[in-house]
Structures are given as C-alpha cells and as structure tokens.
C-alpha cells in the first residue's frame, strides 16, 4: 500500500535555525493522523514540506508515493488560521474552488455548506471563526484530495466550534476514505478523531505509530527509589525521583510483572506529555513503533 507520507532524514533549516531535524516517518494511507507537539516544534514546517510549499534542506519526502508539488490535485491543505477571502461570499468561494480544481465535487460542497448552516450570500469576512474553519474545510474537501493536510485548524476555536468542526471532519473521512494529517497541540481533540499519532518535539520525531499500540505499550511505574538500569528491558521515556520513591513512564511490549512496581495505565495525553518532558530533558530520540519503520 502506498504511504500517505514518507520521509527519510528530512531536514529543513532557515539560516542557522533548524525547523525540522532528520525526520524519518512512514505514515500509512487511509488513516486519520494526529501531528502533535508544542509551538515551534516543526509541525507547520512538516506540513508545508508535504504539500510542496517548501523544499527540504536535506533528506527526502514523498506524499502518496510522489515528490510533493504545490497545487497537486491529490493533496488538500488548510493552513493555520483557516485562511479564506474576506471580501468573497461563501458561494463565491465555491465557484472559485470549482474553477481551480478539475475534480471539484459541487454536490459535496453545497451539501456541507447547508449542513453547517452557512449562508451562501454571506461574505467570509463576516463569518465567525468556527464558520470560517468550516468553509475552509469544505473548500479543501470538495477538491476530493486523497490526502488532506490540516495545520492547527481548531486552535482558535471555542470548545463547541471545535467539536462541530471535528464531527464534520469525521463525517468527511468516513464518506471519502481520504487520508488526513492534522496538526495540533490539543491532544484531547486529536484523541477523539485520530488512529495514528506523531509526536514532534524540538524539531525531531519522538515517536510515531498506531494509537492503540501506544496506549497498550506505555505504563507509569511507581515504586521504591532505585537507579534505573539499562537491563530492565524497558524504554524509559520519563523519570522522576524523591528521596523514597521513583516514578517512571516506560515503553514495554512485554508484560511488567515485577511486584515491586505499581503499574498504571496512561491515556494519550499522559504519553505525549512524557515524550515532551523527556525531550526537554535531553533524553529525547526518534522512536518508531514496531511495524512502522
């Protein structure tokens, strides 16, 4: 199966600043992928490279088996702040989309506009943030891309508008089967819709893989204070210690049956935060779940 996104040692620099550092990924097609990390981690840079708006400094990148090209009919992109043309009406956005995209699905566009309650005669500059986001998503989806890239599409929306947007996105992906990569620093939102996750911190990939595998393979261990040896068989993501107690977040594919540890499950946000903290502490390195290399 063709990968939605494949990179090998992908690097992007702006002068002396490295925005993306030796990024290696293989994202399978047909998934809704969350790209999560703090502000400045390189999320926008990766998405702009994927849609051909930027060229890499080093390394390789492919989207849908091809070198990215700006304006490709196979890839849709919604940039940060869900840009629309303030002086154009909703209907004029749809006519412009039809003019620019040979594969334009007018039925889909008109149906979505009706579903989300947008007035075709309303100028985009008068729409709320949530309405602008829905308009931008509609224009991108009506292009009928095989891969849809969304850069922080809900960051500026209130909770109700975010929920409405994400519901619309889930309906679109269920109907079309397109692959989606959506960046955000709001893990709870991504957890609702994504089945694959990439954690990007400090310009480097910390982990990438299937969400269910991440949840099953990560644990919090609490027990008497002790040094953490290399022979434990665990990949220690984050650790903290008091005078009497050690707390670890570990990745392990095997059951942890040491009775001296209390073993607790983690949710996705716990896992993401552990990788962020581990990377900030200098322990971060690229990790890819088994089967995703």
TrEMBL record:
SMART domains: AAA (SM00382). Pfam families: ABC_tran. InterPro entries: AAA+_ATPase, ABC_transporter-like_ATP-bd, ABC_Transporter_VariousFunc, P-loop_NTPase. Transmembrane segments: none annotated. The keyword Transport applies. The keyword Transport applies. Residues 5-227 form the ABC transporter domain. GO terms for molecular function: ATP binding; ATP hydrolysis activity. Keywords: ATP-binding, Nucleotide-binding, Transport. This is ABC transporter ATP-binding protein. It comes from Actinoplanes cyaneus.
């Amino acid at each position: 199966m063709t990968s939605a996104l494949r990179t090998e040692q992908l690097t992007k620099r702006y002068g002396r600043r490295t925005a993306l550092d030796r990024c290696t990924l293989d994202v399978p097609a047909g998934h809704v992928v969350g790209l999560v990390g703090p502000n400045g981690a390189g999320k926008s840079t990766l998405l702009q490279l994927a849609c051909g708006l930027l060229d890499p400094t080093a390394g390789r990148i492919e989207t849908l088996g091809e070198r990215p090209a700006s304006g490709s009919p196979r890839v849709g992109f919604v940039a940060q702040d869900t840009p629309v043309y303030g002086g154009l009406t909703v209907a004029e956005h749809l006519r412009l989309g039809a003019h620019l995209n040979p594969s334009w699905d007018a039925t889909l566009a008109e149906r979505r506009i009706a579903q989300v309650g947008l007035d075709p005669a309303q100028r985009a500059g008068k729409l709320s943030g949530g309405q602008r986001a829905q308009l931008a998503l509609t224009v991108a989806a009506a292009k009928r891309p095989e891969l849809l890239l969304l850069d922080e599409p809900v960051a500026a929306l209130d909770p109700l508008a975010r929920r409405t947007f994400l519901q619309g996105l889930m309906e679109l992906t269920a109907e079309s089967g397109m692959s989606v990569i959506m960046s955000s620093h709001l893990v709870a939102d991504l957890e609702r819709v994504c089945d694959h996750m990439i954690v990007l911190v400090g310009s480097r990939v910390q982990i990438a893989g299937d969400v269910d595998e991440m949840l099953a393979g990560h644990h919090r261990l609490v027990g008497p204070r002790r040094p953490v040896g290399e022979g434990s068989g665990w990949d220690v993501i984050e650790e903290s210690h008091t005078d009497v107690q050690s707390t670890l977040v570990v990745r392990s594919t095997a059951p942890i049956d040491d009775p001296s540890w209390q073993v607790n499950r983690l949710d996705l946000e716990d896992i993401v935060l552990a990788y962020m903290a581990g990377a900030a502490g200098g322990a971060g390195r690229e990790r890819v779940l088994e089967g995703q290399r």
